[in-house]
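Hi Y.,

Following your request, here is the sequence exactly as I used it, all 141 residues.
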Amino acid sequence: MATRTASAVWDGTLKQGKGSMKLGSGAFEGAYSFSSRFEEGAGTNPEELIGAAEAGCFSMALSSNLEKAGHPAKHISTQATVKLEMVGGGPKITTIDLKTEAEVPGIDPSKFQEIADATKKGCPVSAALAGTQINLNATLR
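Below is the corresponding structure, written out as C-alpha cells. Let me know if you'd prefer a different format.
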C-alpha cells in the first residue's frame, strides 16, 4: 500500500504568525493563520483538510461497499462538517457530521442505510479519527 506525505510551515507567534500546508503530491498548497483556523479569516486550516479526507475516504469506501453488495452507485456526494470547540481549556475536534447523497439504482433504502452505516465504521480515515464522534446522514436521490 502507498505511503503519503504532507508538510506544514509556521512562522511567528500563534496569533500574529502565518503558515502554509502542502500535500506531498503537489495537488494542494494553502495558507493558514490563527484567523483562518479559530475565526472566519481567509485561508485554510487543518480541520478543513481533515473534513476533505473524511468525505473523500467515505465516498470511495461507500462506492466499493455498494458495488460488493451488487448495487453499483452512479453518484455519491459527501460533505463533512468538522466542529472545533474549546474543551478543557484547549481546542478539540468534537464531531464530524457527514452528509451523503447517493444515486444507487435498484437498492432498498434500508439496505443502503445499512451499508452506509457499516462504511462509516470501516473507512480508514474514520478509523484514524476514532476519538472523534462521526455522525452520518445518508440519503438516496
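The chain is about 35% helix and 35% strand.

Thanks again,
Q.
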